[in-house]
Specification:
Elements: E1 2-6, H1 19-24, E2 35-38, E3 47-48, H2 55-58, E4 64-71, E5 78-79, H3 83-92, E6 113-117, E7 122-128, H4 131-138, H5 145-154, H6 160-169, H7 174-188, H8 197-209, H9 215-220, E8 222-227, E9 232-235, E10 241-253, E11 259-260, H10 270-276, E12 295-297, E13 306-313, E14 317-320, E15 325-338, E16 343-346, E17 351-354, E18 360-373, E19 378-380
Antiparallel strand pairs: 1-3, 1-17, 2-4, 4-10, 5-11, 6-9, 6-10, 7-8, 7-10, 12-13, 13-18, 14-18, 14-19, 15-16, 15-17, 15-18
Helix pairs in contact: 5-7, 7-8
Amino acid sequence: MLLSLTNTPRDYAWGSDSLLAALEGRTPTGAPEAEVWFGDHPGDPADVAGGGTLDQITGGTLPYLLKLLAAGRPLSIQVHPTIEQARDGWARESGLAADDPQRNYRDENHKPELLVALSERFESLSGLRPVSDTLTLLDALDDSDGVQQLRTRLSAEGDVLRDVIAWLLGGGARTEVDEIIAAIITASAQADAGEWSATLRAIAGVAETYPGDPGVVVALLMNHVVLTRGEGVFLRAGLLHAYLSGLGVEIMAASDNVLRGGLTPKRIDVPELLSILDTTPGEVPVLRGAGEGAVISYPVPVSDFALERVVVDGSPIRLEVSGPTMVLATDGQVTVTSSDGEQLAVAVGTVAFADPGETSITVSGVGEAFVAGPGHRVARP
């Protein structure tokens, strides 16, 4: 059985006022449109053509949540827990109401996620940069007391990244934060800041959106990652990250667990954030996809979801499926055919949902789609 899924864009303040409308070929509403959820998560289950929502069909059992994400301004810096951390946090907060502002954990699941860029440029902050590299970056800034204090703390012994983040977010570094942000803005305006020019411009843009926010300096500790269309990034549990701008397809384990670390008016629970944060530094690799021809996969080290990009040029592509599968159209004209011959045209920005009874689907037409599901699928010509 095939079902057509849609949903109303969520109007988070960081959403773009044009990217989703441009993708779907419609007039912008004038309001921010941040995310479209295609899943059965109780926070916003997808709408089913003909009436009802997807959770009424699946019983809320989907292991993944597929989204369109459109960032017009930086999202909050955030991190997601492991399954063990989520279960522990959920149990500790069992006495709090679901909408209690003191609650950190919305469910008992982890939230690894994969984002693949749809815009020609997608900027993010992903993971913590090696300390030695950040110390080199600081050479591009002035010698204000705040910058010197940051350099000293990064040159100390122990888990310095955890210690510095605790210092920045703990409220005791107000003067130093202002001085470091001023130095970032000054350096970004220079004609040539060397190898760090693009990073400093990006962080200065964050500072413009969130003036005086300690998260701006946390952002200075993170890798600036720029994706081009079709490239992706996988974010494991414990990895600090923030999307800055662009349009993408995002898939994650079915969870809404977020611990924030800056760039937000929302509550930041610093001790809980630090308890789940993985401060192991290093580059986060850009995924350029695996495979050749019409089907490109983005292998990830989790079993909750799999994602493939399918480009059809008139020749149908058959995919073996196992479990509930979604086909999200992102360009052109795409049709999905079930194993028993049922056909469904999929408008750009909407999803065809194949229930677990399907053993294969065929994607045809001329265009592009992303196929999501649990586990691995095998493409057939």
